[in-house]
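Reading a protein record of the kind used here takes only a little practice. The record below shows the convention in full:
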Amino acid sequence: MLKGLFKGLKDLIYPNCCLVCKNRIQPAGQQQLICAGCWDKIEQNLPPFCASCGRHLTPEAIEKNACPSCWKFNFYFDRAFSPCAYSGAIKKLIHEFKYSGKDYLGKPLGKLMQTFIRDYQLPIAHLDFVIPIPLHKSRQREREFNQAEILSQEVAREFDKKALTDALIRVKPTKTQTELTFQERCQNVKESFAVAKPELIKDTNLLLIDDVLTTGATSSEAAKCLKESGARKVLLLTLAS
């Protein structure tokens, strides 16, 4: 955490600038990290939602209750939700969060997830545990923290749930998914997860947490592993999709 700590101290010592637009921030900004203007520009993911991936449905897709990308693929998670569309300000903030050591962004970004759960009445009361998508130990050493774990702790704390941060583990390193096709992504993450504590997972309903849903290949593989260990239901909540 030292790298993130030093970056955080630098941001506190020097004049505050918005992490998105880089302009001087006013005291009314979101915890003096994001200016009010950029915070307001975060694009919300609004209903109607795809019954599978949770993205906003276009008028053409409403009849099938699912977006075109989900018509031909059955995910292992039961349903996904995201408060934000992955563009603009939130895309920049997630990049700063993951790759620039700004782990302290977990609190304001976690609030977006907390608000979404309340506003859309996600069945959090009926879920037993919150579980983050894990990083492989080599990736976590490089990054020094797991952004999904931080978000999961923010959600769990707010709703008085337990975050199982070591029940699901990543057992093999995978190359970055960015340039891969959907089929290549599925193959890349195949059998990359394992459940370290299956006795905790059996007969439970789980909330799986990650920062971004792109194709859903990684989250689906994680959900598959959890269900093979006895989980009944696995819902997925990501910050953006």
Notes: DSSP finds nine helices and seven strands in the chain. The two ends are 27 Å apart (CA to CA). The first helix runs from residue 2 to 13.
